[in-house]
TrEMBL record:
Name recorded for this polypeptide: Lysophospholipid acyltransferase family protein
Segments forming domain Phospholipid/glycerol acyltransferase: 29-148
Region (Disordered): 225-247
Pfam families: Acyltransferase
Organism: Lentzea miocenica
Membrane spanning stretches: none
CDD domains, per database record: LPLAT_AGPAT-like
Length: 247
């Protein structure tokens, strides 16, 4: 987190609004955020540190298997999930159990990937976060982010050599020079008390409420960019679509 704070301070300007209710601190808590760029987790960590929270993440297994970085991430308490395998349900169960034991909240991206919607509004996502919330009776704080997409390009699906790293490096160096503003808003807890994990359709209803709350928090962060982002990333496909895009 110390390294992260220095990286974000070097890369751009951080603006944080909203907060987490004091009565939820130190208790099981899920932080659900939109996903707009590769620097999102670092910006979110810096924003959480600013309000006195240390988040853990549910990370792809490949990151936890990486040399040097992997052991460090495990030591920090981040949780493993292999999205394409049969252990996704097991990972959700581990996350709920970890939350029930107390400690730091878990940060998750309901979309599961960086948004490819042309306007960069949240994509449909999946119900995993909602199922964890309902199954464990865990509050959800919606988080809206904007600006991190200007710091590091979407890049490549795979990195096979140094040339594949150039889009990330050149875009980051540009950000260091331009210093974009990273906006992070912590919304009010999503109201889920009337929903039940055992009731058919409630997981979908909970998911919709979470995504709508994230989108509503995103609107004021990008008032001057209501349609498409002003910043153009030539490497990011625009093949996605958002059902939550405001009228």
């Amino acid at each position: 987190m110390v390294v992260d704070r220095g990286l974000i301070a070097l890369t751009g300007k951080l603006e944080v609004s909203g907060d987490i209710p004091p009565e939820l601190l130190g208790k099981p808590l899920l932080l659900a955020s939109n996903h707009i760029g590769n620097l999102d987790p670092m910006v979110l960590i810096a924003a959480c540190r600013k309000i006195g929270v240390n988040p853990r993440f549910m990370l792809a297994g490949g990151l936890l298997d990486a040399p040097i970085m992997g052991p460090a991430l495990k030591a920090c308490g981040h949780l493993r999930v292999d999205r394409r395998s049969a252990n996704v349900g097991e990972a959700m169960h581990r996350a709920v159990e970890a939350l029930r034991k107390g400690g730091d909240p878990i940060a998750v991206y309901p979309e599961g990937k960086i948004s490819l919607d042309p306007g960069m509004w949240p994509e449909r996502g999946k119900t995993g976060v909602a199922r964890m919330a309902l199954g464990g009776g865990i509050p959800v704080i919606p988080i809206s982010q904007w600006g991190a997409h200007e710091a590091v390009y979407w890049g490549n699906l795979s990195v096979g050599g140094w040339k594949d790293l150039l889009p990330y490096l050149t875009s980051w160096l540009r950000a260091v020079r331009k210093r974009p503003t990273f906006k992070v808003h912590f919304g009010k807890p999503v109201e889920l008390s009337d929903l039940n994990a055992e009731t058919m359709g409630d997981a979908r209803r909970a998911h919709e409420r979470i995504m709508i709350a994230i989108t509503e928090g995103l609107v004021p962060l990008r008032l001057d960019e209501p349609d498409v982002p002003k910043f153009h990333d030539p490497t990011r496909p625009t093949t996605g679509s958002s059902p939550w895009r405001p009228a």
